[in-house]
Amino acid sequence: MSSVPERPPARGSVLYDPKIRAVAYQILLIAVLGFLIYSAATNAIENLRAAKIASGFDFLGVTAGFDINQKLIYFDGAVSSYGRAFWVGLLNTLLVGSIGIVLATILGFLVGVARLSPNWIISKIAKWYVEVIRNLPLLLQLVFWYNAVLKPLPEPRNSVQITGLRFGTPDFMGIVSLIAAFGVSYALYVGAERIGRNDTERQIGKIIAALVAAVGAWFLLPNIGILRGTETGLFFLNNRGLYTPEPIFSGTAYILAIVLILGILASVLFRRWAAKQQAATGRQYPVGLITLGFIVALPVVTWLILSVVGTNPVTFAYATQGRFNLTGGLQIFPEFVALTFGLVIYTAAFIAEIVRAGIMAVSRGQTEAAGALGLRPGPTLRLVVIPQAMRVIVPPLTSQYLNLVKNSTLAVAIGYPDLVQIFAGTVLNQTGQAVEVLAVTMAVYLTISLVTSAIMNIYNRRVAIVER
Question: Is the Cβ–Cβ distance between 333 and 91 less than 8 Å?
Fold first, then answer.
């Protein structure tokens, strides 16, 4: 019986191959996009030549000729360039964005947790806050804060004066005396606890120790030189902003900054070491107290030593009220306050809903298990529920951070000098370099968004569930 050789399967047409067609479509799409970009660029160049507008970025070195009220770096319109005006606007944008993100996160978390509160009044207040704020246009809220709240404030000559404490260089002997007084009080307290033969004697000894501490603080606090007492007009509030003491840093402030950075690093390393020791031996350490010592106590002690033996690292320049206006101090402009308030309150309403959804996504069994172990509702929420809810909260939270930064471009409506108002507004109108100015502005916001997303993605990977 003869065998018939099998024929190879017939090959179909190349046009019907899905892989080849996919590559062909992508090549075609790239060609069309390249043609559109080339046509737009050619058309823009021809129009610029017809309007006798030079292209390029040489205009960044030209003197600006205008002034900016809020500036974090030196800027003088008579000598500073458009390039420096760009950096002023960028820093103002980053300032309001960073402050807005922090405050909106704090307020959003508080409102989100309050919405799930068993207290009926707190829950309803949080609910109505979310429902009202997120359904009002942000631009309307910014105009409200600027025109209805801040503008009606009195003029500078009738400023609202707020009293407060002034700080100065500490006195060495005053500090030693105060420490000695508290040492005697603590010794009396310990002695009463150990020597007292019954509860009555121990309570009397503790009362005497408290009186010694109170009397010592009353007589010695005014003599240590740190607090100068209450003085009228430490803060001034009017329709041109809030005038606060302006910090002035001396050469020794760098030492204080280095100590603060080292304290933060030491606290991070200690927390990791304590976590490893607890996992290995089960021994617990006062992590919170030691961390507070690294971050707060160490810089404070360094500041006291530098103030006593050398130059005070930080001094303050206070605002003084003249006949018509105020001079000195740090002026916080109403445009900045209105923009920050509007962005924070508006964005926090959306963050609150994200937080509420994240908490509700955690299984109720987790809360019940924590309660069975004896945890109170506060620690349960902080240690059990929130860490698990963050896996749901972080992705949409990133979107809200990006929205906050992009919504800050509405600052032009109330005159806040951000990047759009300065660079894409004043600089564009004076130079006519629309293509270059708008391209740089879009690139900046794109970079801010990508950097924010990258940071949040790194954090998201840290809190994500690790599958075995």
Answer: no
Strands of the 160-167 sheet, one edge to the other: 160-167, 227-238, 241-244, 330-332
The neighbouring-strand residues paired with 247 are 316
Report d(CA 353, CA 127) in Å as an integer.
9
The phi and psi torsions of 255 (rounded to 5 degrees) equal -65, -45
How many whole angstroms separate alpha carbon 407 and alpha carbon 138? 8
> Is 432 in contact with 53 (CB distance < 8 Å)?
yes
Provide the β-strand partners of residue 326: 321
Determine what percent of the chain is predicted with pLDDT higher than 90: 27
| 364: Cα within 13 Å, side-chain hemisphere | 0
- Contacts made by residues 207-211, CB under 8 angstroms, sequence distance 24+: 209/185, 210/185
Q: Are 400 and 354 in contact (CB under 8 A)?
A: yes
Distance CA 72, CA 82 (A): 16
333: exposed, middle or buried (Cβ count in 10 Å: 0-12, 13-18, 19+)? middle
Rg (CA), the chain: 32
More confident residue, 130 or 308: 130
Residues 75-90 have a mean pLDDT of: 91
pLDDT in tens, 354-394: 999 998 888 888 877 877 877 777 778 777 888 888 888 99
For residue 91, give both structure tokens. Answer: 């820093």
Instruction: Give the whole-angstrom CA distance, residue 236 versus residue 257.
Output: 29
Residue 191: burial class (beta carbons within 10 Å; 0-12, 13-18, 19+): middle
Catalogue the E-assigned strands of 168-217. Answer: none
Task: Say how far apart CA 60 and CA 86 lie, in whole Å.
Answer: 9
Do residues 88 and 75 make contact, with C-beta atoms less than 8 angstroms apart? yes
Neighbours of 332 (CB within 10 A): 17
Rama region for 449: left / alpha / beta (φ>0; ψ in -120 to 50; rest)? alpha
Distances (CA, A) of 237 to 244, 330, 345: 9, 12, 22
The residue to which tokens 């003088």 are assigned: 76
Residues in a beta bridge with 320: 327
Question: What's the whole-model pTM score?
Answer: 0.76
